[in-house]
Design a protein that fits this description.
It is built from no helices and 14 strands. By secondary structure, it is mainly beta. It has one domain. The strands form two sheets. A seven-stranded mixed sheet has the order 1-14-13-12-6-5-4, with no helix packed on it. Strands 2-3-9-10-11-7-8 form a seven-stranded antiparallel sheet, with no helix packed on it. A hairpin with a 3-residue loop joins strand 2 and strand 3. It is globular and about 40 Å long.
Length: 144
């Protein structure tokens, strides 16, 4: 289920596809990482992505070992692997209509955040008035 309100998110650069929204974060860099009960990635000081539920960081493919998946649990402050995202540039960002979030960074790292059964697994704000939230049990609310 997707909820839309106010003006169209497309006016702020988000592009709707049949199963997802392509978010306008290409070339933005992770300029801050904040941790409390959630993990917040700040992109270019103008956009925040907040991860509040378990997620997976897939480390880039290396010739020696291939891809490595690391579980992140922000509610337990188990996010050490995410520190390597500081300074990384976003190559692609997608908010799927079923509630999943996927970010691809230069260097090959990917952040995957699935929906949670009870909580809003992630939210984002920016640039400008663009907002999106993963709803409990899946689904997406997006507005500008």
């Amino acid at each position: 289920m997707v909820y839309l309100s106010f003006s169209s998110p497309g006016e702020l650069g988000a592009v709707e596809r049949p199963d997802r929204w392509a978010l306008p974060y290409q070339t933005m860099r992770v300029t801050q990482l904040r941790l409390d009960a959630q993990l917040t990635l700040v992109l270019d000081e103008s956009t925040e992505i907040v991860v509040g539920c378990p997620a997976t960081l897939v480390r880039g493919v290396t010739p020696e070992s291939g891809a490595i998946s690391v579980r992140l649990a922000p509610h337990r402050q188990e996010v050490g692997a995410a520190l390597d995202l500081f300074g990384a540039r976003v190559l692609a960002a997608m908010a799927f209509k079923d509630g999943r979030l996927r970010l691809l960074f230069d260097g090959g790292d990917q952040l995957h955040v699935p929906p949670d059964s009870f909580y809003e697994a992630w939210s984002l704000s920016g640039p400008g008035t663009l907002r999106a939230v993963c709803l409990p049990r899946g689904g997406l609310a997006i507005w500008a």
